[in-house]
Task: inverse folding
């Protein structure tokens, strides 16, 4: 990857942070109120007028500032010319839409900048919780302006886990997981941010995982010292022609060996 110019990266981070804060404020104007809800084609889940309004705001702010950058968003048609661009914004306007529809506060705005497939800037904002997570490649990760680090946990039986309980209790695991504390959040980006902050120790996504769900969280995790990879331990790369990855694993670094022993034995759908 070409070395990003610090002054340009700093301006892009300022632009990204301001846009995401404004997007969070806009999302809160819709939160807890009647929404216009449609089902996406192909069983891809619901989309609301709030998702689309936030997407429009971010698109205008980010591409308005950098019209030569590529654009990949859950709520925009995919434009193939992004593949040829070195710089690409990767956006999930509202991650956790199903929970947002039910007036649950654990939704996020998730936004990142990739250069040559590597995430260099990221912001995840949970406006209902006033939690603003951010990271710059090589400069650490922050929560509301304070440095954050992943948890020091080294034993799985002491782990605090985010995800569906059925995932960890499934009979297909060759080795049973210990009796861990398991909770869930509707936003995968929020789950990743909570692991990055040290509030939790582990979260998994097994199977088709969209880039916009995990791009921002991937940098938060690596910059906080957490382990982040696919379920086989391979590095995550972004701005793929088909913007999906096979899986995502995020955990405290001291748990990575034990977790990868389990996940590496799982056969995922092709």
Result:
């Amino acid at each position: 990857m070409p070395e990003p110019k610090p002054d340009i990266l700093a301006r892009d981070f300022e632009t990204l942070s301001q846009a995401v804060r404004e997007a969070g404020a806009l999302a809160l104007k819709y939160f807890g109120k009647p929404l216009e809800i449609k089902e996406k084609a192909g069983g891809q889940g619901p989309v609301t007028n709030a998702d689309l309004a936030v997407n429009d705001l971010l698109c205008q702010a980010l591409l308005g500032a950098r019209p030569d950058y590529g654009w990949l968003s859950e709520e925009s048609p995919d434009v193939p010319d992004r593949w040829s661009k070195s710089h690409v914004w990767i956006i999930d306007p509202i991650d956790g839409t199903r929970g947002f529809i039910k007036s649950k506060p654990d939704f996020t705005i998730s936004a990142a900048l990739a250069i040559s497939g590597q995430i260099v800037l990221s912001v995840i904002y949970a406006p209902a919780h006033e939690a603003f997570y951010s990271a710059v490649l090589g400069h650490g990760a922050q929560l509301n302006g304070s440095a954050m680090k992943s948890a020091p946990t080294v034993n799985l039986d002491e782990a605090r886990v985010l995800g569906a309980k059925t995932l960890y209790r499934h009979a297909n695991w060759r080795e049973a997981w210990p009796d861990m504390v398991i909770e869930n959040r509707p936003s995968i980006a929020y789950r990743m941010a909570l692991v990055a902050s040290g509030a939790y120790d582990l979260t998994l996504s097994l199977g088709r995982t969209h880039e916009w769900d995990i791009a921002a969280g991937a940098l938060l995790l690596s910059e906080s010292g957490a382990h982040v990879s696919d379920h086989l331990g391979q590095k995550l790369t972004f701005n793929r022609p088909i913007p999906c990855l096979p899986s995502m694993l995020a955990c405290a670094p001291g748990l990575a060996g034990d977790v990868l022993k389990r996940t590496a034995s799982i056969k995922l759908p092709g």
About this structure: The chain has two domains: 6-147, 156-263. The two ends are 29 Å apart (CA to CA). The domain at 156-263 is CATH 3.40.190.80 (D-Maltodextrin-Binding Protein; domain 2). The CA atoms of residues 31 and 103 lie 6 Å apart.
